[in-house]
Amino acid sequence: MPRGRKKTLTPALEDYLTVIYEIQQKQPAARISTIARRVGVSLPSVTNAVRRLADLGYVEYEKYGLIILTSRGKRKAQSLYALQRRIKNFFHYVLGISIDISEKLARHLSHYLTARTRERIKDFYRLIIDFSEDKAKELREFIEESRKLVNAPTLPEEVLEDLKAMEKETEEEEGE
């Protein structure tokens, strides 16, 4: 790897890894040109990213050859893909955001979440995605646990003020 380059999986490299995974769901291996078309970048940009992924042990790649995820790469890509799918589905099916925007939000947000945050999202997703009355108690317990985790057993005044402001905004919008 060239001098000065970090030997870490950056958000951009995570995106490439996910795209390679998606391609490999439909065909045995990926090509630089296929990835470039999917991501919308130049061939040299993809080549550079794939070399870095190979240096990190996530893909097997030879110049002008096929790109195949290693077992490590596949595990990481599956994890990223599942997280992005959950976030996308939450925005789309729970909040009613368009699928295009939901996908973009999921792709961007997924890079900045810690392992603990990913677990909390998974737990919340399990409760909310197919919500029914019988899950209300579990949702209440989840919210109480969340507040304990941030040492806020009751809502702070600023949150309550936000709620009042939101109610006022809604009333004004309805009055228009």
Automatic annotation (TrEMBL):
InterPro entries: DtxR_MntR_Metal-Reg (IPR050536), Fe_dep_repressor (IPR001367), HTH_DTXR (IPR022687), HTH_MarR-typ (IPR000835), Iron_dep_repressor (IPR022689), WH-like_DNA-bd_sf (IPR036388), WH_DNA-bd_sf (IPR036390). Residues 9-70 form the HTH dtxR-type domain. GO terms for molecular function: DNA binding; DNA-binding transcription factor activity; protein dimerization activity; transition metal ion binding. It comes from the Bacteria. SMART domains: HTH_DTXR, HTH_MARR. Transmembrane segments: none annotated. Keywords: DNA-binding, Transcription, Transcription regulation. Belongs to the DtxR/MntR family. This is Metal-dependent transcriptional regulator. It comes from Pseudothermotoga hypogea.
